[in-house]
């Protein structure tokens, strides 16, 4: 890679990184033998619902002569997330014992070169890691075996989904009637995730339960993007890791998701793009790891009352980089990893011949969201901006579109039954909690005249849309000497409450507001 030019990059990937048909077939056969063993020989009283092939082999992003596979085995003894948590160690012990017996008796047609427990940094073992080698081939395959609860396979049908739990028009993940595997790349029943949050496990603890969705998320990618994923993984395994042998590096899956995000944002998900520009963009994003905040709403929605609230809090409270697993709302990847080491190597590799003279795509490290700006006049403005955009920067963009000076703009969000939220210039959209599509009200703080009418007269008052009802009452007191607690203001047949702004009630220039006097005895006059 150190000597590959920009012009040669695509051909070099095809020649050196894409696996041959023969190797892919050998890996498939090797993995199948393990799956058959788990289904047919490993358990007596426990039924295997299904086995699912994940990792680079399952996703279609394996490297030439260097493949890894996750085999997730969904077992009948796990009837809940809690069962998986409590019985996982027992099941791992049993699988390890059975594999050792097979190796000792040579009844297994695949040689087990290495067998060890494996867990994420600082956690107990969650899988068995095997290095397998076929008797007919010298190449080896690394396989992780993970026992898991069949959360997606045991989910209720769409008729059981609560009204409003899934977005309108959302399809629910469908299962194969023959294998029980998820075959439709769609949002599952939200109750799957509600139960996940109720299980109170560690973050990402139950990630294997969602292997099928993780696999579908990557497998759907076009061929050229998969080659970019191969290039990034090659860089991770052959450049980054050897130069940082003792570092706690983030999982490869985190870099896969970052690469997919860069492609989606930088090309509009086009199948025709420059490989060099794509690789350069990923390196640039890794150099800005302190700003990365990315997530998807493909399999769960931020609008869901339970799941959405959890995800928003997680995104806002977690230290960056934040790369959220699109299939697991508890799965922030690489939170305790050494991203500084990654950024240092990415900085060095920006000078590689294949990327040194190309421009990266215009991709913000924090995911963009759609913001709609509404005015009281009915005019609307829609823009896509980064979550790290400040309210002041947003006002400047509005000023460029509508020629409204920044100092006259007041942006806020009105929620039913709550006082309007006025946004502070220094806050970002993310810090303000706007992690999805958002509608904001724009109020111009120009003076306007409203008319306050009582039984005797009509009195004009100079106010601003952002003034509260309480502030208007104080002006009435100063001019008419009617004490604030004796005032009851009505507009459009509604009683105005002190804490709300005039704009909240739709009061505009020349609006007539009725003043009723509340007598000491409590009656209105």
Automatic annotation (TrEMBL):
Task: Answer yes or no on keyword Cytoplasm.
Answer: yes
Q: So what EC number does this one have?
A: 2.7.7.84
The terms describing its cellular component in GO are: cytosol; membrane; nucleoplasm
Its localization reads: Cytoplasm
* Source taxon at top rank: Eukaryota
Q: Name one Pfam family in it.
A: OAS1_C
Supply the alphabetized keyword list: Antiviral defense, Cytoplasm, Immunity, Innate immunity, RNA-binding
* Cofactor or coenzyme needed: Mg(2+)
Where is it predominantly found?
cytoplasm
Keyword flag Membrane: no
Reaction equations catalysed: 3 ATP = 5'-triphosphoadenylyl-(2'->5')-adenylyl-(2'->5')-adenosine + 2 diphosphate
Q: Which residues form the Ubiquitin-like domain?
A: 369-443, 448-522
Q: Which family does it belong to?
A: Belongs to the 2-5A synthase family.
Name of the protein in question: 2'-5' oligoadenylate synthase
Query: Encoded by which gene?
Result: Oasl2
